[in-house]
Design a protein that fits this description.
35% of the residues lie in helices and 17% in strands. It starts with a helix and ends in a 21-residue tail after the last helix.
Length: 332
Amino acid sequence: MHWMDRVQVWALKKRHCFKDGWGDLSVVDHVCDSIENPGPILPLDLSWTDPTLVLGAELRLGSFTSPVPALAERVAQGRVWWLHPADQDVRGMVVAFASWGDEGPTLRGRILGPLVREGVSIVILENPYYGVRRPEGQIAGGLRTVEDFIRMQGTVFEEGRALLSWAQRTVDAPVAVFGFSMGGHIGATVTTAMRNTPLVVAAPPLCPSEPMSEGPLSVCLDWDALGGRNPKTIGRWIETMDRFDLRQLPAPRRPELTRVIGCSQDGLVPATHALEIAEHWALPFEWQQVGHVGVVLTRGRVLRRALRDVMGIPQRGRRPALLGAVETSRTG
């Protein structure tokens, strides 16, 4: 395992998830059905702060009440960061989804922020159950029950479609989806329902079952609360999470608008997962000789190039400014 991945595992194991057990798994059928047979896109009523000028970009914080019913009050109060070119025409927009434990805009801002200097607008959605959307009793990103995790998947799917629809109405330019790790999984899931959407995913899992039951990320789960780390409990976990296997969903209609990037030294998600997704959906695929964490810390240019490619945006010669240092101090 790459040393960066070891550091990530060490950090994440302090956030034990599912300390309150399984919760109500009757939500699984409903969430899976909504993903496999999506209904109309739910309305998303966004309210925006006045822009703050940051390194040549306009930074706004958006808030909304989730259109998804039956969420706890704090979980339902969504927010979005929007980095928008301040002094040039918009050539594209990227909607970015969160990886496991990714609270706030910093990581995605550092990866994607330089694109703003090239006329690309960036929209970063905060996951339900993360950041200010944590329910009472949750510590950091440590979801309390498996039910919460399932609800997160279903809620991001619906909010993501709604946000993508808003983006497509807002700019007269291509709108792409980006996701790393868990964000890649949910980003791919969203685009199966909006199948002409450009997509770039890095180190995505097929589904959450194997990475969190057999790999190093298994240290994040409170196995005692789930019934003990034994074949019966692990089997129940795998059976539940296999319902979210991307291979059960339709492929993008236009493979040329999609890039799947795998990490040959991935220590957190089996490296073969990205390749299996690309092969199953007949999508363009690219290996990077890095670990799971390394692809976002050291391959930002590769990810941004892929996004430019799927949106059909030529690279400009001017040097981009980094916007990833922007934190939430002004926006909550």
